[in-house]
Each structure stands twice: as C-alpha cells, then as structure tokens.
Amino acid sequence: METNLKVAVIGSGTMGSGIAQVAATAGCHVHLYDTNHAALEKSENNLETTLSRLVEKEKIDETEKDRIINNISYTTTFAELSHSDLVIEAIVENLDIKRKLFSELENYVAPETILASNTSSLSIASIAASCQKPERVIGIHFFNPAPLMQLVEVIPAIQTSEEVLEKTVQTITDWKKVVAIAKDTPGFIVNRVARPFYSEALRIYEEGKADFASIDWSMKTIGGFRMGPFELMDFIGNDVNYTVTETVFTAFYFDPRYKPSFTQKRLSEACYFGRKSGRGFYNYNSELPKPTE
Ligand code: NAI
Hints:
The protein has 293 residues and is of the alpha/beta class. It has helices spanning 14-25, 37-56, 62-70, 95-105, 124-128, 162-174, 190-206, 212-221, 229-236, 238-251, 262-269, and strands at residues 6-10, 29-33, 72-75, 86-89, 114-117, 137-142, 151-156, 178-181. It is built from eleven helices and eight strands. It has an eight-stranded mixed β-sheet with strand order 3-2-1-4-5-6-7-8. Bound molecules: 1,4-dihydronicotinamide adenine dinucleotide (NAI). GO terms for molecular function: 3-hydroxybutyryl-CoA dehydrogenase activity; NAD+ binding.
C-alpha cells in the first residue's frame, strides 16, 4: 500500500469528504480544500461521527480512528496543495468551473502531479484541454458513499498518458478499491446505465401512475434493489443528479431516452436536495420520512 502519497481533495461535500476518508485510511496525507469554511467544518464533524460509530461497532479501534483523523488537514488556502502527488477534484458538476479550477491548479502543483476529476458525467478530454499538460489529467469516479462503495471508474481522456493511467490504477487498487477502466463518454458506465432507473421512475410518478413511496417500495421489495430510485436521488442529491441527467441528455444530442425531469428540476431549484439539505422527495427533518407533497 502506498503510505506516503500526498493527496489533495478539492471540494469537501458528499464526495470529497468520502474520498478524503478513503485516502487517509490507506495512509495518505490528505489536504481537503474547500472555498466554504462551513463545508469544511461539516466534513470534519461528520468524519468524527462516522469513525466514532465504527469504533462503537468495533470495526476499528481508537488508535486507527486517530490515525485517520490525523492524516487529514482542512484548508481554504490553495497554496497548501502545492506539494501534492495527486489532486482529486470533487466540486460542483459544472464544466466551466471545473476547467477554471484545473487551469489554476497547474500554477501551484509540480509538473508531475496527477490531476483527477471525480465528475459523474463531464468530458475528461474537455477538462484536460484546460491544462498546459493535459496528459496528466484523468477521471477517477468514486461512488457514494466513497468509503463503502467498492467500484471506482478510472477514465483516461484521449490526452492522458499511459504512465498516468498506470499510476492511477495502482493507487486506487492500493486503496483497496476495484477499478473499472471506462471510456470518456457521457456518464461513463454506471451513470449511463443508471439514467433510465431514475427517469422511468420519475415518469411513472409524473404520469400519476404511482406515488414515489410506492415506487421505492416496489423496487426494494419486489425488485430487490437496496434503495428505491427516489431514495437514491435524495441520497445522491437532486441538484447533482439533475445536473448529471442534463449533461448526459445534452451530450447525447438530446436523445429523449435521457430527458431530464421538471419534477426533479423544481426540487433542485427549491434547494430540496435530499438528505444533505434535510428535504427532497422525502422530508428528513421529521421523525418518519414522509412524502413532501
Ligand atoms: P456537494 O455539493 O456535496 O459538494 C461540493 C463541494 O464543492 C461543496 O462543499 C462546495 O463548497 C465545493 N465547491 C464548489 N465550488 C468550488 C470551488 N470552485 N473550489 C472549491 N470548492 C468548491 O457535491 P458532491 O455530491 O460531493 O459532488 C461533487 C462532484 O462529485 C460532482 O462533480 C459530482 O457530479 C460528483 N459525484 C457525485 C456523486 C454523488 O452521489 N453525489 C457520486 C459520484 C460523483
């Protein structure tokens, strides 16, 4: 296992926090960066809670908990990322904002630093093209929750060097994850296959054929899924999930198979993101989750 790799994770939301935990558990020194102080504070508190639960369940001991916590430092200062061997970006799913971040990053890090994006759906080639050394850019797509989900998609862009691909696969394998190398196409593998799962469920709901709690119940009880589509959208974040659908729809030249839903758009606009905001399709602030309408 690579124990002394210096890793920077940019964006301390749902994914960035989980990725930082994975890297820190594997023994890497992690700088978790965000522009938002509150997001960093929330991430630090959540890690403490998560690890304490693991101690209670006797999955790890106090020494291991302290080791993981001490491997992560939280920062709002970009310059502190300058010594990183690997940077993983997990900020908002917006191509222009990601491209700007990557081009700025190059002014701070060493020429051999690998720059990775955790994007769910955007073009890695386009992100790489914002850099002077596009051959060091690659997609590393973790799934939510990153510490629990085994699969990681690794996505080389057409510009990515063989060496960067090999090093990335080795690192992610060292982090005890299973790597699937995916082509740089919209949604890669899993997010493309998953689109109809969400969109058909939304269509059934919008057509008034069933309410979302019944759809979730059916998919779990009869379909054998661990989570129903609406629970899963709330878990992922309706803002993130909607944006990914919109990106895939646009990238496939408006193929109606991937058409986004107004229902989810309105939830996102109302900041009903799901679990992370306390309300989505379901209301997480009340004792019993119940439909919001
Ligand atoms: P999130 O909304 O939970 O967190 C994003 C974080 O990035 C926030 O803390 C925000 O303050 C920060 N941020 C935004 N712009 C920034 C900037 N310019 N510089 C530094 N920090 C900035 O989002 P989430 O869900 O963690 O998603 C992040 C990325 O991971 C997206 O590209 C998303 O598509 C991808 N992803 C999301 C999954 C999910 O289930 N939520 C699963 C796999 C990938």
